[in-house]
Give the backbone structure.
Amino acid sequence: MPETTDQQKFVYDFTEGNKDLKDLLGGKGANLAEMTNLGLPVPPGFTITTEACKVYLESGTEPVALRDEVSAHLDALEKQMGKKLGQADDPLLVSVRSGAKFSMPGMMDTVLNIGLSDDSVAGLAAQAGSERFAWDSYRRLIQMFGKTVLGVDGELFEEALDEAKRAKGVTTDVELDAADLQRLVEEFKGIVAKETGRDFPQEPREQMDLAVRAVFDSWNGDRAKLYRRQERIPGDLGTAVNICSMVFGNLGPDSGTGVAFTRDPASGHQGVYGDYLQNAQGEDVVAGIRNTVPLADLERIDKASYDQLMQIMETLETHYKDLCDIEFTIERGKLWMLQTRIGKRTAGAAFRIATQLVDQGLIDEAEALQRVTGGQLAQLMFPRFDDRACGREGSELLGRGIAASPGAAVGKAVFDSYTAVKWSRSGEKVILIRRETNPDDLDGMIASEGILTSRGGKTSHAAVVARGMGKTCVCGAEELEVDTKRRRMTAPGGIVIEEGEVVSIDGSTGKVYLGEVPVVPSPVVEYFEGRMQADAADADELVQAVHRMMSYADGGRRLQVRANADNAEDAARARRFGAQGIGLCRTEHMFLGERREMVERLILADTEAERDEALGALLPLQKADFVELFEAMDGLPVTVRLLDPPLHEFLPDITELSVRVALAEARREPHENELRLLQAVHKLHEQNPMLGLRGVRLGLVIPGLFAMQVRAIAEAAAERATAGGDPRAEIMIPLVGTVQELEIVREEAERVIAEVEQATGTDLGLTLGTMIELPRAALTAGQIAEAAEFFSFGTNDLTQTVWGFSRDDVEASFFTAYLEKGIFGVSPFETIDRDGVGSLVRSAVKAGRATRPDLKLGVCGEHGGDPESVHFFHEVGLDYVSCSPFRIPVARLEAGRAAALGNGGSDSR
Ligand code: ADP
Ligand code: MG
Ligand code: MG
């Protein structure tokens, strides 16, 4: 239980706080205080701390001292304002606003006009010189208070309001006069009494106290709790409550309310961005009740306030050294600031703004790196719809959903998985459209260019699975009515889209178009590919910004970045994207295609001679692959993983083969080889291939297999070296669980390498290491390091085996449920599970380095390209991360960001 000593202070005047006190005052409160102390016009008020909320949450009642402290601050506020809360002839009114450290959904909505009552409404009318204004303010109070504090269904008030308008034959609120609103107040009070069994509180202080308590209670609302669990925000932070004296934007045409940005959150450009609404209060701007005007128009409406606002915006930006967003109100020509915070922005704007601020001398390079994220860079790298074509000629905007998995996809609309698969097999591009998806849709999702659903959010099945597959997805597009039975969808305005019509979906914005929107390559990818120069005179502004941020990152990072690449083409791209080597070359593709037949011969071999012959046929082919790869990566390390997948993956499908054999037998012309193959397939069939005969286990039970691969690597390296190249191969053994396995493979490999070196007269400097991808390997890393010169963490298999998850099975079947219940906020296959899998990595790093101080450490799971995970790998002190070529820029940027943060990177050294 938090201490409640005499000294503890639960209430801070706006003049007492500052922006660094977000833990105590919440984001809104801390920034209100900061603005107050900058001398900006903030309506006076005070903040009740998160500590008071904590006491309330733990004990069920407000801390004893709180009441008196609030009274003291209220007294001071009343003195300053020259009127008392709810004073009959001239009432002081306040707003009660929640404000946690992190803004989160589900916290109580702000209640405005607290202090109004049957008594003071007349006083307010007299002071303002407007009966209508006073009654409108009062009905807003009862409505907001009734709904958010007393929990009355908001619809009841809305219906009463609509009925009043209908009765009068008008359509907007502003057409109701004072008498109408007064009648409405009576009706609203009736609703409150009926629904809650008590009268609307007339005592101003009671109104305030009830609202404060309701803010505290909202901390534990269902939505807030779920959000916190998913985002891993501790449940005991509590929220602050801000009491702010009211200013009125609804006092006539010389009043109004607005929002503003200090620069364009879409492009980053400096200028005047925002919206203004004359004669309006609070939420009216965002509620879209009437049309707002662009902020620039304020100059014409009220030049003095406009000039002052521009000046304040500049003050704020220089002070916060970042784009700020602002809420303000003008009351009869006097400007008031009601909120500011660091503004949200698009990915492109984030890069531009970061470099602009460096140029303005406001921030340094390390700080600039914290202003962008790898996720934003990834967004900028997706191909996108041509802006100029969106919504024009032949491509009409149909609606908008949640941008669940980025990318731009075009295809024919299909409404079930079966059709998706059928059409895509015949070469059509399709977009799978469903109300929501479930595990049965998996095949259809795989076959589609993109997925569109009308239900579900960012953690819905469609969203999770699409992200896992790297597929474009827009979900929860509720305006679109999907009718799977009739294979059609209806968009607002009655536009019907039938099966087969072309649609375009934008997974980065959530927009859905009818027709084909042309896709343009991302200029950022053009830049990474070397097809666009950042220093060219006409270089794209965004490309210039990305280029600069990348050089800051590369200049400071400690982690190296390698690529997962299996062939020369991918290797070359990886190099262009900045890879410093290959961290994972899978060799399984070298056993596919025409070579399958040789693998079959290998598996069916009865005698040593037959086996050697099969291996002998594979050797030159593999060697040729390696020669190409080493050439593409000349001078850089290339980690080659020996064969990993279970052998049955190279054999024909068991059902197909059974049918073939049965048919042949029926025709009485049995095929000897196929029969033997079928027996082999039966023998190799496994209940659980992921945990079966694969990786090092294959190498140990199939004589000569690994030796052949090692020989191919060594001979390729020798050939490159003889030709004057600089091959740097590293041989990696997968799925090792114990050092003995590795020792046996190692002895054989060393023998083969020595033979090749002797025969070719070369010194190849090949190193031998292992993947750490089984819990036992991680737990015995100290022993394994005796036989390994490097470790590469295979975090995909490690996640599967630590959690006991088979990825393909669990992601599609129950991850949505897990995410919805908040068991994890993001799939552990997307972002490394720091506490579980991560702790094994951490201890394996320590143990490995204790045995062998110069042990080289890397990671080659997909996590190597995930922003969060890169930070973790930096912290535990790995030497490199390896990821798919396309993710390399993201990994470089994040490695730079992690280094610039200056935390760790050496805790295991
Ligand atoms: P949110 O976090 O939803 O933005 P706010 O507390 O900022 O909630 O308030 C909602 C609306 O009411 C905003 O438009 C804000 O500017 C306005 N508002 C809040 N307090 C006052 C006040 N004291 N006087 C006038 N308007 C206010
Ligand atoms: Mg606000
Ligand atoms: Mg693996």
Residues 583-645+696-885 form a domain with the TIM Barrel fold (CATH 3.20.20.60). The first helix runs from residue 22 to 37. The chain has 36 helices and 31 strands.
